[in-house]
Specification:
- The chain is an alpha/beta fold.
- It is built from 14 helices and twelve strands.
- It has a six-stranded mixed β-sheet with strand order 5-6-7-3-8-9, sandwiched between helices.
- Strand 10 and strand 11 form a beta hairpin.
- Helix 3 runs antiparallel to helix 4.
- The two termini are 55 Å apart.
Length: 414
């Protein structure tokens, strides 16, 4: 049974598309690894399905009465609370049931026979619910998870306001695991965990009977706990059955097949184009040239960008950037090399993440392209190393942290 449905999801930041018509379905008990290069939108996807971010288009639908737990490493912990207070709050709904049970017990001696029967029935239901969820061993469960994640060393009476960022994340993860929701959404849960804590978490997730979606750069960890992979690439989301190693095998075969098909098609395009250019002016061969041109026009072009990871943009955008920058004399996307594309992606990053008034363009008397940024003039020949700088900055942040990216980029130039 499906507990989460995502249909026709599209989203972007500015001119940059993150998803285009993406659909996703999560079934009970599925253990999913969400993978893709930095910048492909994994954390953005998590934010959208948890309703922390509104998508441009699409529908997000959860099943009724499904509890979803999201590891939000930026959640605020209330000052004055201890680690134990936070962990026990995972069972807040059970404590509410206990309070209701106490009210019922107080009322039993003050009601008539008919109302007493109804109260006793409610009391019985509450008692069954509390027993089923181990209410009477909550403290031992709290200690078990706290010990497994290294929190007992800090002391459960330690105030959360005194915790470091890594310690806060451990507390949030422990609370989330204690809640045991129908679906766990985990974004880099092994951050700040020692090896022994990772081993315990791995075993916990392997035995977890409910569903989870996991983002992790710890590939051995990911490999050991998931049974499905959803791969984000080129604004699409593709499903693969098996763990990460199995995904890599299938993906490599698919990529090889795509590359071969792309090369065959490019060869065919080149031959057809050459024939059209050679014969379109001659009366005797004009009809054949027109026939081949129609074939070209109707051809479903295979897109294959070798070696591109992280940033993939529309062909129209790349061509527009190329022409506007006057760096490359291109009239067709197929003329762009991988190096060209890398440099153009850098230009697109400049445009997307720096305020427009930062830029000033100029050409010298020889027509060499240059940009003035702050007090520095950057020439085309230097832009490849600038691309590497931008990419390394970008990798440090989620793709929705544009302010942080802009701040660090500006610091480089000023």
């Amino acid at each position: 049974m499906s507990i989460l449905n995502v249909e026709h999801l599209s989203h972007g930041f500015g001119d940059r598309a993150i998803f285009e018509d993406v659909s996703f379905r999560l079934l009970r008990g599925e253990h999913i690894g969400l993978v893709g290069a930095n910048g492909e939108g994994k954390s953005t996807f998590m934010s959208i399905v948890t309703h922390r971010l509104q998508p441009d288009e699409g529908k997000i639908e959860w099943s009724k009465n499904v509890r979803a737990g999201y590891l939000d490493q930026h959640a605020v912990l209330e000052p004055g609370m201890t680690i134990q207070d936070v962990l026990r709050s995972a069972f807040a709904w059970l404590f509410e049931l206990e309070a209701r049970m106490n009210v019922i017990c107080d009322e039993l001696g003050q009601v008539g026979e008919e109302e007493m029967a109804a109260l006793l029935e409610e009391l019985s239901e509450i008692q069954e619910m509390m027993d089923a969820h181990d209410f009477y061993v909550i403290d031992s469960k709290v200690e078990e998870v706290a010990r497994a994640l290294g929190l007992m060393a800090l002391g459960l009476e330690h105030e959360v306001s005194d915790l470091s960022g890594g310690q806060r994340t451990k507390v949030l993860l422990a609370k989330l695991l204690l809640e045991k929701p129908e679906i766990l959404l985990l974004d880099e849960p092994t951050n700040y965990l020692d090896e022994e804590h990772i081993t315990w978490l791995k075993r916990y997730l392997q035995e977890y009977e409910n569903a989870f979606v996991l983002i992790s750069h710890d590939i051995p960890f990911l490999n050991d706990v998931v049974n499905l992979i959803y791969h984000m690439e080129n604004r699409k989301l593709t499903r693969y059955v098996g763990n990460y190693d199995k995904f890599q095998e299938v993906y490599a075969v698919q990529k090889s097949q795509l590359e071969a098909a792309y090369k065959r098609q490019q060869q065919e395009i080149a031959e057809l184009t050459e024939f059209v250019n050679r014969n379109k002016a001659r009366v005797a061969t004009r009809n054949m040239a027109m026939s081949r041109q129609k074939k070209l026009d109707k051809m479903d072009i295979i897109e294959y960008l070798s070696g591109m990871t992280g940033f993939v943009f529309d062909k129209a955008v790349l061509k527009r950037i190329a022409l506007e920058r006057r760096v490359y004399d291109v009239t067709d996307f197929s003329e762009l090399t991988t190096q060209d594309i890398d440099l153009l992606r850098a230009d697109l990053l400049y445009t997307a993440y720096l305020s427009p008034n930062v830029w000033a363009s100029s050409t010298n008397q020889h027509g060499s392209f240059a940009k003035t940024i702050g007090s520095q003039t950057i020439y085309a020949s230097e832009r490849e190393k600038l691309y590497n700088m931008f990419y390394n900055i970008y990798k440090k942040y989620n793709d929705d942290k544009l302010e942080a990216i802009e701040k660090e980029v500006k610091a480089f130039f000023y």
